[in-house]
Design brief:
- The chain has 2 domains: 1-266, no CATH class; 269-522, TIM Barrel (Alpha-Beta Barrel).
- The chain has an 8-stranded mixed beta barrel with strand order 13-14-16-17-18-19-20-21, surrounded by 6 helices. The protein has a 7-stranded antiparallel β-sheet with strand order 3-2-1-7-6-5-4. Strands 9-8-12-11-10 form a 5-stranded antiparallel β-sheet.
- By secondary structure, the chain is of the alpha+beta class.
- Helices cover 45% and strands 23% of the residues.
- The protein is built from 14 helices and 21 strands.
- It is rod-shaped, with a radius of gyration of 52 Å.
- It binds ligand C2E and magnesium ion (2 copies).
- One magnesium ion binds next to loops.
């Protein structure tokens, strides 16, 4: 994954985490707030109902007190009794007497003669009620007249709901429950809304964008309806998230920066290599090895490549020394061996004249683990041991007493062993005699400087011919690395060097490409 894509993915993950956390926190806090709000409205409506019941009870008490009056109606004595009732009961504005058809006298007006309106509400054992409007324009007031027997009391409707509001949005109304007639309501309470709420089943619920609570009285056929706008209780979660988006974006960006920094810190060479091993990112590429005598490919050197997740290929010079010093070379060599067989195992089984040369590091020589891995692969792909060669860098073989027996183990298993990068080590040529090897690979840099001087005609470097001569005399095979020109190839052939490897023939390539290379060569030779 490219760093930009990693940063983007991290940002998305962090942003998701931040928003999800915020959403959960907001949801939880909204749920708590809503529950508290609902409880407050419940308590408020119960208080309102208590108040309404108190006023109703007072009207009932006043009427029951007046009912037994046995004197002549509307006399001074009777009017006196009516006034006493008006004064005694706080919410009674006026008390009067009716003959059942007309109102004959009241505590305020004395004897009168007014037609009795038809009752709009009947409750309890013989109570009836109706509304009248009093006051001038702009000062209209709705009065509730309650009658029991021949007496009538008048109550200002506002008394029923005369309590301190919970907040500036709550609305309240009091209704009678038989016909859902509104007895009293606050100025902005919707007449139809409260009636509709009363008719619904539930005692408290959301509908039409409001939260309603209906409190029904057990003593009287009355109920109180309180309601609040829904958004007062339930916050708009989406809206809230939209509001927190900009700060969440900033927090996510900062979080991403921290995560990336932390990742960079974690990405030590050791961790990176371990990750590569875990993900099997080490693959073997092939560089053809050519017989200088026939010009034909006789095999290939397996050169490891670290294939990163984003497709980048890392050259071995940058990580092999690091893997060696961190003690991680063995699992990498194992992956190279397996990769060789996965890539060209079948081709090797089909062409016994081909071999693959595998590089070994100092760490690989400490045990025979590579041989164990190899044994399994050889059996699986039916490849012969002599088709696998090994290259060991000269400087890892300095201690001949310990390295000689190890190399012998490899040779005893049927493999050929070459000294790689010959000429760059510290040892003298004579130590070749003490090592059980099949041949040497002349280092490319070494060879290059010699062949350059050779090309110019002045033989400034006399070691190369000497090495070749020495190898011949010791009966060792020779591979020349880094052959880039025909002149170099000609020189090496003329001096009896058997094999060459270099860009003159081909660069290192993935296994499938190498297989195509072999096919082309076979086809070309067949045509020739
Ligand atoms: P080496 O084993 O000497 O491999 C030969 C190197 O020379 C390769 O470099 C190859 O690409 C390069 N080369 C081949 N022909 C030419 C040419 O004509 N001109 C020039 N300028 N260069 C040429 P590469 O693949 O980068 O490998 C570098 C070194 O990494 C190898 O040197 C070897 O020491 C080490 N290495 C590669 N694969 C492995 C492995 O699987 N295990 C271990 N332990 N070391 C490995
Ligand atoms: Mg090599
Ligand atoms: Mg080499």
């Amino acid at each position: 994954m490219s760093p930009r894509l990693t940063a983007l993915t991290t940002f998305c993950a962090v942003a998701f985490a931040v928003l999800a956390t915020l959403a959960v926190a907001m949801y939880a806090s909204d749920a708590v707030t809503e529950r508290q709000q609902r409880q407050q409205i419940d308590v408020f409506s119960r208080r309102a109902l208590l108040r309404a019941e108190l006023v109703t009870a007072e009207a009932e008490a006043a009427l029951r007190q007046l009912a037994p009056y046995g004197g002549t109606p509307c006399t001074n004595d009777h009017l006196q009794r009516l006034r006493q009732a008006e004064e005694q009961f706080r919410y009674i504005r006026e008390a009067g007497w009716t003959d059942g058809v007309r109102l004959r006298c009241t505590s305020l007006q004395g004897p009168i003669d007014v037609a009795l309106p038809p009752p709009t509400w009947t409750f309890g054992d013989g109570f009836t009620a109706w509304h009248t409007e009093t006051g001038g324009p702009g000062n209209e007031r709705s009065m509730l007249n309650v009658r029991f027997g021949n007496h009538v009391v008048v109550i200002d409707s506002r008394f029923y709901l005369d309590i301190v509001p919970l907040d500036d949005t709550i609305e309240l109304a009091m209704l009678e429950t038989q016909d859902a007639a509104v007895i009293s309501r606050w100025a902005h309470a919707g007449h139809d809304l409260v009636r509709a709420a009363l008719r619904r089943e539930s005692a408290s619920e959301y509908f039409q964008g409001r939260y309603y609570v209906v409190e029904r009285s057990r003593r009287y056929p009355i109920a109180v309806v309180a309601y609040e706008p829904e958004d007062r209780l339930r916050a708009n979660l989406l809206g809230q998230i939209r509001n927190v988006l900009p700060p969440a974006f900033v927090v996510s960006a900062f979080g991403t920066w921290l995560v990336m920094r932390w990742r960079r810190k974690l990405r030590t060479p050791r961790n990176a290599l371990l990750e590569g091993i875990r993900r099997h990112q080490f693959v073997a590429w092939m560089q053809p090895l050519v017989s200088l005598e026939t010009g034909r490919c006789v095999g290939a050197e397996a050169l490891v490549r670290w294939k990163l997740e984003d497709g980048t290929m890392v050259a071995p010079d940058t990580f092999i020394p690091m893997a060696e010093s961190l003690g991680l070379i063995e699992p990498i060599t194992d992956q190279v061996v397996r990769s060789v067989f996965e890539g060209v195992g079948t081709a090797l089984a089909n062409r016994r004249d081909l071999h693959v040369s595998i590089n070994l590091a100092g760490g690989d020589l400490a045990c025979t683990r590579v041989l164990d891995t190899l044994k399994t692969c050889l059996a699986k792909y039916a490849v012969r041991p002599e088709q696998i060669w090994f290259e060991v860098i000269e400087r890892t073989l300095v201690d001949t007493a310990t390295s000689a027996p190890v190399l012998e183990t490899y040779r005893a298993a049927g493999h050929r062993v070459f000294i790689d990068d010959f000429g760059t080590g510290y040892s003298s040529l004579s130590y070749l005699q003490a090592l059980p090897v099949d041949g040497i690979k002349l280092d490319r840099s070494f060879l290059r400087s010699f062949l350059r001087s050779f090309a110019t005609g002045e033989e400034t470097n006399k070691i190369v011919p000497h090495i070749i001569e020495m190898a011949h005399s010791l009966g060792l095979m020779m591979v020349a690395e880094g052959v880039e020109t025909q002149a170099q190839a000609r020189y090496l052939r003329a001096h009896g060097v058997q094999y060459a490897q270099g860009w003159l023939y081909a660069k290192a390539m993935p296994a499938d490409e190498f297989l195509r290379y072999l096919q082309h060569e076979a086809a070309a030779t067949g045509n020739a």
